C-alpha cells in the first residue's frame, strides 16, 4: 500500500491551531524572499520549519511566529523574571535554584549599589525575585537583582507570602 | 657504561664531566665529576655545537620506548572544548604539534587568553561552544588539573565546529561561522586558515 507523505499546509492555516512536535509548518523552498522570525518552539531544518514543542502556533504581525505552550518544565530565557531559592554562596556568586535544567548563578555585585563592601548575606533557602540576564543551553544561567538600568525595581529577597509551583502557562498569565 | 646496545638505567654513570657535557636525561652527580643517567634508555653522544667555546661532546639518554607526546609550554595543540563557563573554557587536548596523544590531558582557556584585544569584554559563549575543535598554544603547565592554553593569535582559535542544525560550519570571518544547511551565522573565535 502506498502511503503518501502528508502535504505541508501553508503556514497561515496553522495559526492559532494546536501543533505537535515534528509537524512541518512551512516549506521555505516554495516561498519568495521573506524574512520570518522564529520564536520559541520552532526550528529551521534546512528548508522546512518544524515544531519542537506542542502548543498553539501564534503569529505577531508582520513576521514573528512562535508556539505558545504550557509545560511543567521551565527552560530559562533571557529577560524572564522568576523566583529562585538560594542553595549555596560562593565568593563571586550565589547559587540559586530556579527549577530549570541547571542551577543559576547570581553575581554578588548584581544588586543596586552593590559593592564589595556591602555584599548581601543570604541564608540557604532564601526566596529571591530575580531577572535572567544570560541563558545559554550549555552554561549556567546568569541572574540579576536589578533591572536593565541598574535600579532595584522590587527584585531581591521576598518576605512573607507563599510560593508554590505551577505550569509555565499559568505563571506567564 | 655497559649493558647490551648501550641501554642504561637511572643512576648509571654514562660519562665523565671533563670529556662530556650533560644533555637530556643526564645529570651531573653531586661529586661534580661523573655524569649519571636519569632515565632508562639508550645512551647517545652528540657532537659539540659549532662555534661554542666548549669542545666537549654532549651525552644524552633517549627513552627506548616511544613515549606519547606531552604538551610543553610553547607547543601548539589541538583540543576539543568540553565546557564553557563565564570566565573560562575547558578543553581536552587531543594532539600535540603533529602527534596524537595516548593519555588524556585537560587544558583551560581563560577569558583573558581568548584573544589579544579587549580581553575584559570577551564573552566566552560567543567564542567557544562545547564540542568545538580549537587550535591553541600551551602557555604553561598550569595547576594540577589542567594546562593553561591560549588562542590569542590569528592562527589560533576554533578550527572546526558544528552548528545547531548539526552541520559542519564554514568560517566567514575571525568572529563568525555559517551553517551551510540553514544559513545561520554563529559567533566563534575562528582560527585563520592557512
Highlighted features:
heterodimer, A: 173 residues, mainly beta, OB fold (Dihydrolipoamide Acetyltransferase, E2P), 6-stranded antiparallel beta sheet, 1 helix, B: 194 residues, 5-stranded mixed β-barrel, 4-stranded mixed beta sheet, 16 strands, exosome (chain B), Exosome complex component CSL4 (chain B), cytoplasm (chain B), RNA binding (chain B)
Report the sheet with the most strands of chain B, covering strand number, pairing sense and barrel closure: 5 strands, mixed, barrel
Helicity range of chain A:
under 10%
DSSP helix count of chain A?
1
Structural class of chain B: mainly beta
Distance between the termini of chain B: 48 Å
Highest-level CATH class of the largest domain in chain A: Mainly Beta
Biggest sheet statistics of chain A: 6 strands, antiparallel
Element-by-element helix/strand order of chain B: EEEEEEEEEEEEEEEE
CATH superfamily of the largest domain in chain A: Nucleic acid-binding proteins
Q: Sum up the overall morphology of chain A in one term.
A: elongated
Q: What's the pLDDT, averaged over the residues of chain A? A: 83
- Total beta-strand segments of chain A: 13
Q: Indicate the CATH topology of the largest domain in chain A.
A: OB fold (Dihydrolipoamide Acetyltransferase, E2P)
The amount of helix of chain B comes to under 10%
What's the assembly state of these chains? heterodimer
Unreliably modeled segments of chain A: none
The amount of beta strand of chain A, in percent, is 25-35%
Task: Spell out the helices and strands of chain A N to C.
Answer: EEEEEEEEEEEEEH
Query: What is the largest interface, and how many residues per chain?
Result: A-B, 10 and 12 residues
GO cellular component, one term (chain B): nucleolus
InterPro entries (chain B): Csl4 (IPR039771), EXOSC1_C (IPR019495), Exosome_cplx_N_dom (IPR025721), NA-bd_OB-fold (IPR012340)
Pfam families (chain B): ECR1_N, EXOSC1
Keywords (chain B): Cytoplasm, Exosome
Amino acid at each position: 500500500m502506498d502511503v503518501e507523505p502528508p502535504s505541508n499546509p501553508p503556514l497561515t492555516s496553522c495559526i492559532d491551531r494546536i501543533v505537535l512536535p515534528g509537524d512541518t509548518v512551512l516549506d521555505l523552498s516554495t516561498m519568495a524572499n521573506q524574512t520570518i522570525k522564529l520564536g520559541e518552539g520552532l526550528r529551521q531544518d534546512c528548508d522546512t520549519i518544524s515544531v519542537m514543542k506542542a502548543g498553539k502556533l501564534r503569529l505577531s504581525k508582520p513576521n514573528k511566529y512562535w508556539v505558545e505552550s504550557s509545560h511543567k518544565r521551565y527552560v530559562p530565557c533571557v529577560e524572564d523574571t522568576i523566583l529562585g531559592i538560594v542553595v549555596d554562596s560562593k565568593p563571586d556568586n550565589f547559587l540559586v535554584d530556579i527549577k530549570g535544567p541547571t542551577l543559576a548563578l547570581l553575581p554578588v555585585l548584581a544588586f543596586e549599589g552593590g559593592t564589595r563592601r556591602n555584599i548581601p548575606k543570604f541564608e540557604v533557602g532564601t526566596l529571591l525575585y530575580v531577572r535572567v540576564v544570560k541563558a545559554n543551553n550549555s552554561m549556567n544561567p546568569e541572574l540579576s537583582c536589578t533591572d536593565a538600568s541598574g535600579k532595584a525595581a522590587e527584585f531581591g529577597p521576598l518576605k512573607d507570602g507563599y510560593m508554590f509551583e505551577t505550569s509555565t502557562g499559568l505563571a506567564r498569565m | 657504561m655497559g649493558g647490551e646496545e648501550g641501554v642504561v638505567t637511572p643512576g648509571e654513570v654514562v660519562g665523565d664531566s671533563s670529556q662530556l657535557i650533560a644533555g637530556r636525561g643526564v645529570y651531573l652527580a653531586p661529586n661534580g665529576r661523573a655524569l649519571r643517567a636519569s632515565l632508562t634508555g639508550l645512551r647517545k653522544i652528540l657532537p659539540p655545537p659549532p662555534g661554542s667555546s666548549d669542545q666537549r661532546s654532549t651525552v644524552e639518554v633517549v627513552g627506548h620506548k616511544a613515549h606519547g607526546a606531552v604538551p610543553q609550554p610553547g607547543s601548539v595543540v589541538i583540543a576539543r572544548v568540553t565546557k564553557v563557563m563565564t570566565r573560562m573554557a575547558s578543553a581536552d587536548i587531543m594532539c600535540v604539534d603533529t602527534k596524537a596523544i595516548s593519555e588524556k590531558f585537560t587544558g583551560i582557556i581563560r577569558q583573558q587568553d581568548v584573544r589579544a584585544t579587549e580581553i575584559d569584554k570577551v564573552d566566552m559563549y560567543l567564542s567557544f561552544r562545547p564540542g568545538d575543535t580549537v587550535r591553541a598554544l600551551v602557555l604553561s603547565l598550569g595547576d594540577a588539573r589542567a594546562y593553561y592554553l591560549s588562542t590569542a593569535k590569528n592562527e589560533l582559535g576554533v578550527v572546526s565546529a558544528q552548528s545547531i542544525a548539526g552541520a559542519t560550519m564554514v568560517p566567514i570571518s575571525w568572529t563568525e561561522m555559517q551553517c551551510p544547511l540553514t544559513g545561520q551565522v554563529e559567533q566563534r573565535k575562528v582560527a585563520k586558515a592557512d
